Amino acid sequence: xxxxxxxxxxxxKQLFKNPxxxxxxxxxxxxxxxxxxTYAAALLYWSVTHTTLSIATTxxxxxxxxxxxxxxxxxxxxxxFHMTADTEKxxxxxxxxxxxxxxxxxxxxxxxMPPALSITIATLLLFVFRLILGDFVFSFLPGFLVGYxxxxxxxxxxxxxxxxxxxxxxxxxxxxLHHYKNGEMVYGVSSPLWDYIYGTMTKxx
Length: 205
Fold this sequence. Notes:
Distance between the termini: 23 Å
Shape: globular
Helix content: 55-70%
Order of helices and strands: HHHHHHHH
Number of helices: 8
Oligomer: single chain
């Protein structure tokens, strides 16, 4: 589907007729970043003051959370945002979630999840991971959320600024290949790790 979308260098597109929904579908990048960093800090504070987890365990679980997020980022991007749109409903959902970003990649208001959805998902993850991990969630989820905040930061920068003249330039190159060369390759944004593991790192470099 994305091969049929021609990226526009500027502009935006209205997704919803309802002005409230349309407004809620957009956000400034700073809003979700503040939400996730604050949420992560609060959880870490709770971990230190209300659990018996050691510093070593807390740090280890935090970094496991960060790495886990990169895996989730890769799979959501590959299998949800780029799902096979074999029905009209799937095609509409796919375009709303991600296709509009491929058509208007420089629209800065749609480079991050809207705040209301961000808070809802973070809270749902807290309850789900709490059932699975117990008190470990208070150090794992902060890492997961910081990983997501890192992804948002990288995604925003690669669409808004010129690539730096250092090793981080590879992130700009990789995501540029995904948008402008082959939308079915290079799904990792914050890290190319899982593209190498799963064989989706394009050779067009």
